Amino acid sequence: MSTRSVRPSPGLANVRYEIRGKLARRAQEMERMGYDIVSLNIGNPGAFGFRTPETMRLAMIENLRAAEGYCHQKGIFPAREAVVMQQQERGIRGVTADDVFIGNGVSELIDLTLRALLAADEEVLVPSPDYPLWTAAVNLNRGRAIHYPCRPERGFVPDPEEIESLITKRTRAIVVINPNNPTGAVYPREVLEAIARVAEKHHLVIYADEIYDQMTYDGAEFVPMATLAQHTLCCTMSGLSKVYRACGYRVGWAVFSGDLENAREYLSALELLSSLRLCSNVAGQWAVQTALGGYQSVRELVRPGGRLYESRKAIVDAVARSKYLRLTVPRGAMYAFVGVDTQRLPGFDDRRFAMDLLEHKHVLVAPGTSFNVAYNTHFRVTNLPEPEVLSDVFGRMEELLDNYAAGDEPVSRSTPLRAVEA
Predict the structure, then answer these.
(1) CB crowding 373-400: b at 16 or more within 10 Å, else e
(2) Rounded to whole angstroms, how far apart are CA atoms 218 and 297?
(3) How far apart are alpha carbons 251 and 406 in whole angstroms?
(4) What is the model's pTM?
(5) Does domain 11-40+303-418 have CATH number 3.10.20.30?
(6) 418 has a pLDDT exceeding 60
(7) CATH code, residues 65-293
């Protein structure tokens, strides 16, 4: 009998998500062989001992009976109303529960909102570096991701004039990630105001990815984009995953504000797509009202002495000690986008470094090119581990970079116990 290979869809040709790609698969193989791998490639609080606030867990438990059936396609009313209340507290007017969509994390909502918007070859302006799901979702939904640069020499803050220069007649939307993943940049108010004016001038939808909205350090000001964009449609996205350390609950929201009147057909299309997937995880939605209306424990984590603050400081201090590494100090989120001094290490390649670091030092990081940048001189780490773990990790990095500088082969750590027994 003849056979025929099963080929994937050509629509996946330009879709990448390397944060969980080749390096992550190799790390899993090594763990099965007995190696202890320090995984810094994903911002997953639960993997590093962070707990979801107890009040949120109790809210889910107490409402499990009400979570056994499907809910409204946009989400349960108490969750959507809690999102509205948060928006109102931030000075955003004219939003009702009908303008809120609850999804299985922001990831699902990114896909749905773009699918409802884009026709073939229409363009979306996406930051570079970006959270790569944005680029992937644009490509999956037949669009073209046009990357506007957030340059290291500008502290990874975009230039609104440069953004405007990339707009064509096919441009439909602009993505703003603030606080930023992967760089930790927190955009100044004047930059956000200028981007809002550009979007209004060209009638672009603004997708404001604000999942790290309360994770800021050293007095950095987070400015909600929806407070600045009045005369075009603004979609603010956030959720429970990061600020509330509840990644596994898979609860995110998209709330629409601004020019709602001229977006009714689009919002109806989005509701249709939401209906086709019936609804998002109901049990997790019962934690939203408690999360948004309760004590914001993340504030303790991001102030001096707090876990996230001190781990971030450990990264900053380690880079300052390094002969090879450079860093624009992150002012928000839970990552650092670390650069390498190519004058000291000419020919540095982020992918080779990431693989060598994994194979020889048992540390998993995300190469900078995973985030849709044209240069290969950076890598991303998360600041979720304890400070002493991060100090040790950067010591291992320095050893590897010393090997590179000397032209030597990397020196591996000890062989795992199970490999010896085998």
Answers:
(1) beebbbbbbbbbbebeebbbbbebbbeb
(2) 17
(3) 49
(4) 0.94
(5) no
(6) no
(7) 3.40.640.10
